[in-house]
Design brief:
elongated; 129 residues
Length: 129
């Protein structure tokens, strides 16, 4: 009787090529770029919400209702940006400077600067490979 089960690999065999790299291994540049795209989208949405938030809190004194809505949304997106950047650092896709930059610059500006730096590094790595 013929068995349709796959034969087990020896313990010292390398993992199959379609397995995603784990922490500490070089990630596929396309995967890192897709993750950076998510970070960029969150940062752009955050900055687009930050503009009316600053406008309403700074120049229009009677618009506290806008601040009450957009303030927590900005805070949530700020935490999402930190979380996404920290996740990439834990995966060793980039250094811890990226989430620190997001915290120091208070969100979107730091994430867009970090995004630009990392995209340049990925392109340089791809060109040298």
């Amino acid at each position: 009787m013929e068995s349709s089960a796959k034969s087990p690999q020896p313990p010292d065999a390398p993992p199959p090529a379609d397995d995603p790299p784990g922490p500490g291994q070089a990630a596929d540049p396309d995967r890192r770029m897709r993750f950076l795209n998510i970070i960029a989208w969150v940062a752009v949405i955050d900055v687009l919400l930050l503009i009316p938030l600053v406008w309403a809190s700074r120049w229009v004194a009677d618009r506290h209702d806008i601040v009450a809505v957009l303030g927590p949304v900005h805070g949530f997106l700020f935490l999402v940006l930190i979380g996404l950047c920290a996740y990439g650092s834990l995966q060793k896709w980039w250094g811890w400077w990226f989430p620190v930059l997001v915290v120091v610059t208070l969100g979107p500006l730091g994430s867009l600067i970090g995004d630009w730096v990392i995209r340049r590094q990925i392109k340089t790595e791809a060109a040298s490979a």
